[in-house]
Design goal:
By secondary structure, the chain is of the alpha/beta class. The chain folds into 2 domains: 6-166, Rossmann fold (3-Layer(aba) Sandwich); 173-380, Phosphoglycerate kinase, N-terminal domain (Rossmann fold), CATH 3.40.50.1260. It is built from 14 helices and 15 strands. The strands form 3 sheets. Strands 3-4-2-1-5-6 form a 6-stranded parallel sheet. It has a 6-stranded parallel sheet with strand order 9-8-7-13-14-15, with helices on both faces. A 3-stranded antiparallel sheet has the order 11-10-12. A hairpin with an 8-residue loop joins strand 10 and strand 11. The radius of gyration is 23 Å and the shape is elongated. The protein binds adenosine monophosphate. The site of adenosine monophosphate (AMP) has 18 residues, from helix 8 and strand 12.
């Protein structure tokens, strides 16, 4: 994908408005429980400082619904960011061009939660224009916010020259390598609970892949559509025709669909519930399919061996409960092994995927793991991302 990159901008004496994502998780005491998003913002901030730009950071936090809500102030980020940067960070509740102009050229400013006004989520041009008036260039570094046409993450790009920050650049380059110009054959593994939440994604993928593996609860709907009795399994029977349409579209596009050929069933939805492996036509009426069976895993590993690119979204079973994490963990570990041998490029993201891959202890081995839930899914669905469109060269 061709987009404007940070290294191409002359930044000396300029003020850069940077959209980051500081929507970090906190515990009941207000402590930051995972600072990945703060860490991700550091390379761009350091680059701007090194190149002589004043840095004004914008972010949302939580869902204050357009109200000023002190519990959702971004002020708590300041000490964490100062510690990570080893530099003072100035927090500004109500910014203005004069206030920003008065600060030293090496200042780093954090502006209060952009969602304290409804104009942010409305993508209101007045807010975008105002934010643009605070600086000279806009740097978009929050891929996770790029699927929304909000004032601070997309509309501002209509009023300032806009460039991808370094985290954004890394994300876009990896995603492009997985779907826009991948090494073929390309496979995707899509799991998770429901077909209904992934129809657009499946429809987009079948036209772009060599093989699509469907697992998790959503596979049950496909098995049901093919005439199997899925017993008491999670299954969206009303989506039978949609599932058949997707299978037909895959056939027309020459995309091989891999569904479970054996399954792990239990009568109780709980960890360590008594379970058994059975064939697709042997699921009893009181049993739930909670994982793919060993023969299915073996087929998936063969597909991985034959593929050069893997896109992974969603678990293959109810992975939060042993032993129903087995197929997810085995497939993830195998993909990780192929990555270590440089035999496959594996990109993963969306929903529970990161938690499932963390359980398999493969986060460091995959080529790239996106923590941008919604934006990653919309990218997989082939939808335009407003925060990316403003960067296109
Ligand atoms: P999603 O957010 O759509 O990726 O769905 C993830 C959820 O799907 C996880 O909580 C899994 O436990 C659940 N899941 C996966 N496979 C099954 C299954 N066979 N039956 C019920 N839930 C499942």
């Amino acid at each position: 994908m061709s987009f404007r990159r940070l290294e191409t901008v002359d930044l000396i004496g300029k003020t850069a408005i940077v959209r980051v994502d500081f929507n970090v998780p906190r515990n009941a005491d207000g402590d930051i429980t995972d600072d990945t998003r703060i860490q991700s913002a550091l390379p761009t901030i350091k680059h701007l400082q090194a190149k002589g730009a004043k840095t004004v950071l914008l972010s949302h936090f939580g869902r204050p619904k357009g109200q000023h809500n002190p519990a959702m102030s971004l002020q708590f980020i300041v000490p964490a960011l100062e510690a990570a940067l080893g530099k003072k960070v100035t927090f500004i509740e109500k910014p203005s061009p004069t206030l920003i102009a008065e600060l030293d050229q090496d200042a780093i400013v954090l502006v209060e939660n952009t969602r304290f006004t409804t104009m942010e989520t409305e993508g209101h041009p007045d807010m975008a224009k105002f934010l643009a008036s605070l600086g000279d260039v806009f740097i978009m570094d929050a891929f996770s916010a790029s699927h929304r046409k909000h004032a601070s993450s997309a509309v501002i790009g209509e009023y300032l020259p806009s460039y991808a920050g370094l985290a954004m650049e890394r994300e876009l380059d990896h995603l492009a390598a997985a779907l826009d110009h991948p090494k073929t054959p390309v496979m995707a593994l899509v799991g998770g609970a429901k077909v209904s939440s992934k129809i657009d994604l499946l429809e987009n993928l079948v036209s772009r892949l060599d093989t699509l593996v469907i697992g998790g609860g959503m596979a049950n709907t496909f098995l049901y559509a093919q005439g199997y009795d899925v017993g008491a399994s999670l299954c969206e029977k009303d989506l039978r025709d949609k599932a058949l349409d997707i299978l037909k579209a895959a056939e027309n596009a020459n995309c091989r669909i891999v569904l479970p050929i054996d399954v792990v069933v239990a009568t109780e939805f709980k960890a360590n519930a008594e379970s058994r492996v059975c064939a697709l036509d042997a699921v009893k009426s009181n049993e739930m399919i909670l994982d793919a069976g060993p023969e299915t895993v073996s087929v998936i590993l063969d597909v991985m061996d034959a593929s050069k690119t893997l896109i992974w979204n969603g678990p293959l079973g109810a992975f939060e409960m042993t032993p129903f994490d087995t197929s997810t963990v085995e497939c993830a570990k195998y993909a990780a092994k192929l990555c270590r041998k440089d035999a496959i490029t594996a990109v993963a993201g969306g929903g529970d995927t990161v938690a499932a891959l963390a359980l398999a202890d493969v986060l460091d081995d995959f080529t790239f793991i996106s923590t941008a839930g919604g934006a990653f899914l919309e990218w997989m669905e082939g939808k335009p991302l407003p925060g990316v469109d403003i960067l296109k060269a």
